[in-house]
Amino acid sequence: MTDAKGRPGTGERHPLSREMRAAGLSKSYGATVALEHADIALKAGEVHALLGENGAGKSTLVRIFTGAVIPDRGEMQLHGEPYAPRSILEARRREVATAFQELSLVPNLSVAQNFLLPALAGAGSPLISRRHVLARGADILARHGLGRIDPAACVGDLPLAERQRIEIARAIENAGRVLILDEPTASLAETDWLFEQIAKARARGVAILYISHRLAEVREICTSATVLRNGRSIGTVGLGSASDGDIFEMMVGHRVEHARRPARVAGAARAPRLAAEDLAGHGLRGVSLQLGEGEILGVAALEGQGQRGLFRLLAGLQTPTGGVIRVDGRAAAYRSPRAALRCGSGISYLPEERKTEGILAGLSAATNVVLPFLPRVGRAGFIGRHDEAKAAQPSADEVALNPRYLAFAIGDLSGGNQQKALMARTLATGARTLLLFDPTRGVDVGTKESIYAAIRAFAERGGSVLFYSSELPEIVQLADRCLVLYGGQVFRELEGDDIAEQKLVAAMIGHGSRAATGHVPAPAAPAHAHAAAESAR
């Protein structure tokens, strides 16, 4: 039995005692050891966490389980039988399916078509009518509580959170024995829907491997965890007996301290470097803000409250339907990120989606870092790898990106190192204002600390930072002030010690003081958020 969120109940255990076991898995790419003697066991009807820093070997282990990578050594068993898939399709035939963090959906196909792949593209397969495809897609959506999504909608036109849900639903559809969820909440502002789907899968006896850097949700949904470090299994622990400090120490090899940003000196705020007055359009309904020199301004919001539109408008990716943007005190009407970078003291944007909006996967990390000022790199019109690495090194150092990774194709790096490279590029532009949209989405605790340190150092040098985070502890640690968006407007502003998780949650669902701009209509808030607000009172 399970409770509403899929946590262990007190009913009978599922008759299968062990669904998947892996022992001694190793994988190297030339001189680079990605995985070295990794062991893990998953039980039917249970949720088991896989934890570790980016680069610890988690992605390689997942690719081995899904058949995308063949291990050099080691063995696997599935339901007591040998398991050695050589492709994702072979793994799916054995009822092992994965929802990937870097989504595997085909963006130019419909939702329904993505659900039915690869059957639709099979050689010699009979023609399937569009009506039949849409009907099957609608049935799958309804079965997973996603009936609001049009099965005919083009996947590439949907918000990232909806694409994440479709990726998860497709994996659950194909996971008869083992379901692997790789950072499933990286793009989700709330977990109720996901945990409900997990509860249903557990009830069917599916073994679930849950990969996340968010320990709070890991503790809520998982019973045990295996920790990887430098490609090796450090150990498996019961989450009821291991503290967060114990787990962090297993992950990184030492204790991790989470220090809050020191309070700014009174009177440090100066004339705003970036300001918006009654900004409207793309989910916003009259948002005003001011960002001062040396200030870190956080933005908190539940999914779909206008935060994405706010950052894209300020970055020049979209055009406002109303209001004014001011840079260094002057009205600005830039229409692209390049123009924003050239406006006043400069605005640099770190995008939401690392894979589709950030990196150029086939180019080196150094090239990705120096792209905004590539013409200034090199001599006599020639740009060599040494020139790129030399130009990229200072900002790479700021985010603790290992110099040896600069020569690697950025697509071959872990998600955390890719994010470090993108953060380095944002800093390397020389802009005095940074717009960071969920800058640590899907990265490990060590990478988070490196990015936090870079943000703090930038602000201490007089830089201005506006950042949105889906993780409230991140806002508490970093922000001097925080704006809470609700219904496309600024519902509440918090400052200093008032920036606390309980107050943020209450404001995010419309509880507490109203915005200075007037009454804010109340869109429906997720049930879990109301419960959090009640506990925060």
Q: What does this 3D model show about the protein?
A:
With 537 residues, the chain is an alpha/beta fold. It folds into 4 domains: 177 residues, Rossmann fold; 69 residues, no CATH class; 194 residues, Rossmann fold (3-Layer(aba) Sandwich); 69 residues, no CATH class. Helix content is 32%, strand content 22%. It has 18 helices and 20 strands. The strands form 4 sheets. It has a 6-stranded mixed sheet with strand order 6-7-8-3-9-10, sandwiched between helices. The protein has a 6-stranded mixed sheet with strand order 16-17-18-13-19-20, with helices on both faces. A hairpin with a 2-residue loop joins strand 4 and strand 5. Helix 17 crosses helix 18. It is globular. 48% of the residues are buried. The N terminus and C terminus are likely disordered.
Which properties best describe this structure?
Rossmann fold; 537 residues; 22% strand; disordered C terminus; alpha/beta; globular; single chain
CATH overall fold name of the largest domain: Rossmann fold
Oligomer: single chain
pLDDT averaged residue by residue: 85
Percent range for β-strand residues: 15-25%
Helix content: 25-40%
